[in-house]
Records
---
Amino acid sequence: MNGATLAGLLAGATRRLAQASATPRLDAEVLLAATLERSRAYLLAWPERVPTPARAARFRAWLERRLAGEPVAYILGRREFWSLELEVTPDTLIPRPETELLVELALARLPAGRPVPIADLGTGSGAIALALAAERPLARIVATDRSPAALAVARGNAGRLGIARIQFREGDWCAPLAGDRFDLIAANPPYVAAGDPRWRAGELRFEPPDALVSGADGLDAIRTLITQTPDHLTPDGWLLLEHGYDQGETVPALLRQRGFADVADHRDAAGVSRCACGRWPG
């Protein structure tokens, strides 16, 4: 592809990606725009331009990684979530648009203008905690993760975004909360069953298994959270959990069994059962 125009590079990459990606043209545009450090609109405005050999070589290298199935977010090292550009690495789950539902549900339960205490458990890249901090600037937020590498990414994202109001604590689920209580606890825990072959295939195979897989039925982490979090919720505090597409009846049932009230399940923009919420009566 040396000497090819932008239009030619896009056409060739799109053809090659057609068998490797559900969005071949989009992937090609995103990778080429990032190679040039330009917007995707630039590609359409200047299709006859020819990139330098160095940039063309970088695009070819990135294209080969995408053809091997590696997610675009890991190739570029970044992903947008809630209009925030976040660094992501193979140590963190890639933030997904459907997780923004968890942020929306949390904001609906968090009054603005008050220093409400919030916890984000298993924060990964920090996506949920950072989105909540951006929308509730007075909130006191604790974000936990058992992975030091993931916490380093989350801290770095907070620093780049200029958000200094989050305490990052290392540890498994509620262990780092040290007796603290919160008006709201949110978590996007692993919820894929160990026997489900999908996490070993496609793009998921590039993501950290500990952030995806949780026991034989995918519910081990969710059960732990439902058991532990009442000790760290204020009276009438909320627990919000993202879960798998086929867990929309099981997770609310577990919340009710533990004693949560006002339990409800919510669907994402695609109509898929995605998040369960419950209020702890105290």
Note: The beta strands are 78-81, 84-87, 117-121, 140-145, 166-170, 182-187, 233-242, 261-267, 273-280.
---
Amino acid sequence: MDKKKRTRFLIIIGCILAVLLVGIILTGNHSGHEEPIKLVMKDAVLHEENRINFLGIMLVNPAVISAYTVTAIIFIFALIVRLFVIPRFTDAPGKFQLLLEQAVGIFDGLAKSNSPQRNKFLGAYVFTAGTYIFVGTMFELLGIMVPATSGTAIALPAPLADINGAISMGVFSYCVILSGGIAGNKIKGALGTLKDFSLPISMSFRLFGALLSGALVTELVYYYITTSFVIPVLVAVMFTMLHALIQAYVLTMLTALFYGEVCTKEGPIEDGKIP
């Protein structure tokens, strides 16, 4: 970039910042909502007011619609890849094939390193769970608006930002760990898993708390007009991407770790055979 283009670029950026600054000053420090911030934050967690009429059958939390939508997106994408992309894979991988192989390799390596004896099903599960957490968390960036029962339009949140979704993921992961214990060590493995009865609670609330914190911070920033110009974009993208990556890794890592512990058979390994 030469000196003239650089100067022109800086002038444009300066003008944009000046316009935003003037807008912030003119709007003052007044809220753009009639609801108190306490009610806004409470409804972001409990969804007591802004619910969605699901097919005219029942009123559900917005996260339920998000969960169905994310599941459909992942299923359709996986079906397309399996039918039209994977059959065309070559020995010299292209960009998409390389990206897909790297993603599968990461979770497969995670499963093998934590559970050397039983890892095929574990690898498939942690890949599925990690993908769902990542895509589901990034889903809220789309800002899909739907009509709520309160008469206003709301943006669909991340599925796991709802306590019910987080508990479901935690309990399901715990059941996978329990199945590994039963398959690997029968009754001993089951007892070893059941003694950690607090595991699904800790996994659920860790996932829920991390994702909800980002949603609440973004909701708080959007609530005030003076911070609703550029900051929400940066905050939303930053928190969403960080939580998508970190929580996908944390839950899959914990699942693989506990799965490997309860399904590993004790005893010496002779002639390369697992006892």
Note: Residues 231-263 form the longest helix (33 residues).
---
Amino acid sequence: MAPALELTNLTKRFGDKAAVDDLSLVLEPGAFLGLLGRNGAGKSTTLKMVTGLLRPTSGSIKVLGLDLETHGLEVKRQIGVMPEDMALLEFLTGPQYLRFVGRMYGLEEAVIDARQQELFDKLDLAPAPKTVAADYSFGMKKKLALCAALIHGPKVVFLDEPFEGIDPVTSRTIKEILASLQARGVTLVLTSHILEIVERLCPLIAILDEGRLKDFGTMEDLRRGGGSLESIFVDLVGGARKGELSWL
């Protein structure tokens, strides 16, 4: 069986700046990867490249054995994406937006409506019937973006900061959904600055710093010297700034 995701010497440059620098890693089907890094480390740029939103400067991307450069449409039919900025059509209502997304994936309207209702029930998303997404709260927009990423039953799902702005109850529901997806063989890639969530959820961890892969493996692999994920992460990316503020 082909890897779910295979990155080979992936690089993205913006002028003289390498946002992602010679990144290589392989994920087998059913893997759950937590992609970590400081702000500006290259996480979102990597996700944009592997989902076809941004063309690499060099290197290759294969998803489910398909080269993204030559089989982009076929790849996009099989992946789900929850971008950090959510990218919703905000002047549609939630159900209208999911119907649009479902149609883009070729789903029948009865299937779209049934899945939309099930997703809304699961995530406790119940906006007023005529309320457009622009008037949703930040958390409701996050829920809607997750619904759009899952409605077509993707084989690989990319989630950029899915827990940001989410209440504890919904956070637990999302964790249950992700665990269920992984149990069914769906491959998951998640970015988050909430290291405790990543440590509990993700069997695999990749840590980026200044666009380069600093470490990649299971939590057991990363804990070679012991310590929490937070301590491992801080040590790998250069440590926290010490000292007090002069006026406090």
Note: The first helix runs from residue 43 to 50.
